[in-house]
Predict the structure of Protoporphyrinogen oxidase.
Amino acid sequence: MQKTVVVIGGGISGLSTCYYLSKNSQSSKIILLEANKRLGGWMHTIRREDGAVFEQGPRAIRPAGVIGRNTLKMVSELGLENEILPVTAENPASRNRFLFVNGKLQKLPSSPVAALKATPPFSKSIFHSILEEIFVKRGTLDDESVHGFVERRLGKELADIAIDSLCRGVFAGDCRKLSMRSCFPPLFHAERKHGSITLGMVLGARMKEESDVKQNRLVQQSRKEHWSQWSLKQGLQTLAESLEDHLRNTDRVEIHQEAAVQQIQMGREGAWEVHVEGGRFKADYIVSAVQAKVLSSMLPPAAQPLAEELQKISPASVAVVNLEYDGLVLPVTGFGHLIPSTENRAVLGIVYDSDAFPEHNRKGPPSTRLTVMMGGAWFTEEFGSPEEADRTRLLHVAVQAVKSHLNVKEMPSWSNVNVHKDCIPQYLVGHWKCLDNIWSLIEQHRLPLSLVGASYEGVSVNDCIFGGKRAAERLLGN
Ligand SMILES: Cc1cc2nc3c(=O)[nH]c(=O)nc-3n(C[C@H](O)[C@H](O)[C@H](O)COP(=O)(O)OP(=O)(O)OC[C@H]3O[C@@H](n4cnc5c(N)ncnc54)[C@H](O)[C@@H]3O)c2cc1C
Ligand SMILES: C=Cc1c2[nH]c(c1C)Cc1[nH]c(c(CCC(=O)O)c1C)Cc1[nH]c(c(C)c1CCC(=O)O)Cc1[nH]c(c(C)c1C=C)C2
């Protein structure tokens, strides 16, 4: 009898899991259940009639590393090669990243030569800090905060300014609470194994990679042309849409939209019952591609210990404000700037979208497109509950930040304010233990259940796609 796999959640993680499952001709029937009308989850693009493209969620994907190359291979299998918008390493949007510190924009060193000099806001050169790091005693704790780790190894200044900002620009999180072991696993393990992150990065083992990924034409092009990041001509939502089209053309895959899962229960014969409003699905196996907290609320009372562990992985909310200004209004060119929490807790950073992807500008007179990201781990203390946060105030704070950080006196000619409630899971200190408990409980009770998505082992689009691939491989017994 043909087995049935139900995948819950049609964001990039759920879509990728279905994609990799459907590639195997012997695999089961696959049912994808998505609560919303639109698939893609946080991968969401606004496309205006005049050609302008504004990202609500991810805006750029890194091609580097095993997981970055894996995504490029998927993109090429989907036939999207001609849709790619690469940003090469020489592009100012790759080289120029700024911090807004002490009321000023400060450019981060963009080359090893630049890292030799002490440049404000840092009193020592980064090269100097890295050299000293080799001689710092190895840590012994099983986990520690990102700030604690970096302060111990590279000094307080780098921890307070650079790492604080980096954690806001990737996790929208507080580096004093985020886990080094789970947010930056290669650096944590490099130190624990080799006694230094510098030595560990030089001597560390590389992840195995399939040869067909390395040989993929798009992957080779990205290496030859030194891409640092990429997007797609009509925005990253195209990736989710292509996956959807591919799945709709595959037998054995059923997609149900506006099908919010309310509860999952284990039936007597060892099969799952998945309850949605007005119906239910039987499943031999479930892949959860929703956030941990959402899965927790679906579990039956008998799975209370698992539900409690999942609840611990709580997410942060981010306000995303897209702004468009007539003309070229920026005093600098680059990817954007981040703001450490000591400078301003409410505003995390500003992306200069029209610098990285001018192809996404409107057709017609020149314009500048910016995205201001706000809140994150500080959302509630700065703006109140995400459901009730005042949109007019959010727009005002964003426009004022652009005015004071970038000296833009004009008002935007177009704007869009969105509050993304619970959009980025926070890997707090001890996250690894929580994962360990979750995997043990699933194994102990022999639950036919896999967990994929940003809640567990990486928040980037590349991580989510790679997680879906690994889950499919495990399920198919490879
Ligand atoms: C503002 C922002 C900027 C980002 N920028 C970048 C970037 O530049 N580069 C990068 O690599 N990454 C970026 N990320 C991270 C990345 O985009 C996300 O981590 C990733 O998209 C998460 O995908 P997912 O499928 O795991 O989860 P989601 O996108 O959350 O998908 C989960 C899906 O499950 C559905 N669902 C929820 N409840 C139910 C239910 N009860 N039943 C059925 N379905 C349900 C939801 O509707 C959703 O479609 C960014 C994230 C955000 C929020
Ligand atoms: C200001 C808030 C945010 C900005 N982007 C994100 C948030 C929360 C989310 C995000 N950004 C990146 C990733 C993927 C990480 C990966 O491993 O690929 C996610 C989830 C990429 C990224 N953006 C910045 C950095 C330093 C990185 C890490 C990898 C890389 O070097 O590309 C910097 C940055 N992000 C934002 C701004 C304004 C900014 C400025 C320099 C927005």
Summary: Residues 4-43+236-313+428-475 form a domain with the FAD/NAD(P)-binding domain fold (CATH 3.50.50.60). The first helix runs from residue 12 to 22.
